[in-house]
Amino acid sequence: MNDKMLDIIGLADEKYLLEAEAQPARRIKHTRRFSAGMIAAAAAIGLMTVTAGAVAINSMFNKEEVNRFYNNSQTAEQIESHGYADGRSVENGHFRVTIQSFVSDDYRGQLVLTTEALDSQGEQYMKDLNGEFSFDLIYTDTGEAALEGADAMGTEEYSAGKPMTHECDLEYQIGKQYSIDRSRPLAVKVVCTLPTEKTEKVLEKYQDNALFEGLSFDITPSDYFKSKMLYSADGKELYVSEITVMAMGDQDEEDMSDRYFEIKYRDGTVRSCWGLRTHGGPYYNSDSEKYIGWYWAVRELLDVDSIESITFNGVEYNG
Amino acid sequence: MTDSELIGLYNARDESAVSETKRKYGSYCMTVAQNILRSSEDAEECLSDALLAAWKSIPPAQPENMQTFLGKLTRNAALSRWRKLHTGKRGSGRIELLLEELSDAAASDDALDRLEDVMALRETFNRFLGSLKKEHRIIFLRRYWYMQDVAEIASALGLSESKVKTVLHRTRKKLKKALESEGSI
Questions:
Q1: What is d(CA A239, CA A304) in angstroms, rounded to the nearest whole number?
Q2: Largest Cα–Cα distance of chain A, in whole Å?
Q3: CB B132 within 8 A of CB A20
Q4: Is there a contact between A317 and A232 (Cβ–Cβ < 8 Å)?
Q5: Topology given in CATH for the domain delimited by B98-183
Q6: Nearest residue on chain B to A1, judged by CA atoms?
Q7: Rg value, chain A, Cα
Q8: Is B18 on the interface with A (CB under 8 A)?
Q9: Are both B3-86 and B98-183 of the same fold?
Q10: For B1-31, how does the pLDDT look when each residue is reduced to its tens digit (9 = 90+)?
Q11: Where are the domains of chain A?
């Protein structure tokens, strides 16, 4: 076809362009579906199932599934060599869920999960919901929910009978409302996906969460990730870890316009943010009660030691 | 620097208007161009083209919103560049994919010919946008104006990719209907 449609769409009024551009980047849905008490009880049941030995623990780290999530075909090797590979599986007769890897830094975490239907009920759910799940994050010391109903987004459309890989991004601080204490013991609990306009009817039969009992893992945010601070000529700071680039002085929560960055490595290689970044936005700090910077989540493991400089929104930061 | 101060520099033919515009909106324009061209080098050239176009058009133009004004100049520059680079080629790139998607929305040539007048097209298209639910409008414009990937839209808006795809599919169908019915008047 010709490309006339692109010109027609180019005629959109400015008010609509501003509306589309001004939407804050937000990644994790946290619609409250249950009372805190119900969550705590559900979490306790899930965790008891784990400790009662009803759940198999295997080593099922799968490089192919991990690379399906990351942009770079070498990332699974790096994940393994840096000690972020996991491979634990839990199953409850309906589903097997495998935690492939977990990478964490000071501000964010990045989980890769694989789910697989084990019986006809599990398969039906996968078909009905295109393999979509959500997950809760539970403090295992108290059973309280740290986060509810975050998206475990599939990396591709569900294909019947095949395992499906999901990306789970965690921001330890989500807006002003949610703050996850990464120093406390945490568990990821896989649950039924949240209803959307399209799936509301279909989901009614799954809302008791019976299909998902026991699908829970303990996770420990690593203290050994690589990160460093870079500085601009006028002393501004930029945090870079293997999975995050964050300009620390950028606190303008009103200005949601896009930020652009470019990484220059010591060997002269330059990588633009295109293809590297996924989602981002202003990052809130509950201790200081203010936004502390603008972050971009990176879908690759950055070689932090080899970075010479990063230009973020036109400002150069050096190590 | 505020937009009105920036426009004041253009009106006074002060060349620092260009560098100040680049400082304030360069990143935004680069993203618009990158979304279309996927090349930093080409995007940089589009940014220069857009800044030159802004310099030439203000005055007499006095944009109410510099960001969208520059965004439009950059998008036009990037599409021109993309067309120049792809003349006579049948590619399998992302813009081709996007055009393939939009074939759902394409009204017949007859209907479009009857809407050939740009003002009539603008009015019809914006009436269509105004008729959409806000969330659907944002998803549609992010995909086909800003040319973001489905995954990127899903991620930014906290939606599943399948929901974004469903909304896009339905909206394209509605657009076709709107263009066909307006063009048949």
A1: 10
A2: 63
A3: no
A4: yes
A5: Arc Repressor Mutant, subunit A (1.10.10)
A6: B103
A7: 21
A8: no
A9: no
A10: 788 889 999 999 998 999 889 888 888 888 8
A11: 36-219, 227-318
pLDDT digits (tens, 9 = 90+) for A68-119: 777 677 888 999 998 899 999 999 999 999 999 999 999 999 999 999 999 9
Banded pLDDT at A41 (limits 50, 70, 90)? very low
Q: How many CA atoms lie within 13 A of B148 on its CB side?
A: 26
| Rounded Cα gap, residues A288 and A29, in angstroms | 24
Percentage of chain A modeled with pLDDT above 90: 31
Nearest C-alpha in A relative to B143: A20
Domain chopping of chain B, boundaries: 3-86, 98-183
Give the integer Cα–Cα distance in Å for B4 and B24. 13
Distances (CA, A) of B125 to B120, B164, B173, B179: 8, 21, 13, 8
User: What CATH class has B3-86?
Assistant: mainly alpha
**Segment 54-83 of chain B within 8 Å of chain A by CB:** 64-65, 67-69, 71-72, 75-76, 79, 83
**Chain B neighbors of A8, CB-CB under 8 A:** 121, 125, 179
Amino acid B119: pLDDT: 73
E strands within A105-198? 108-117, 133-139, 145-154, 164-171, 173-174, 178-179, 186-192
My answer on whether omega of the bond before A185 falls inside 30° of 0, hence cis, is no
Of residues A318 and A251, more confidence is placed in A318
Block residue for tokens 């980047």: A25
Distance CA A158, CA A160 (A): 6
Taking the CA of residue B89 and the nearest CA in chain A, the distance in Å comes to: 12
Neighbours of B67 (CB within 10 A): 19
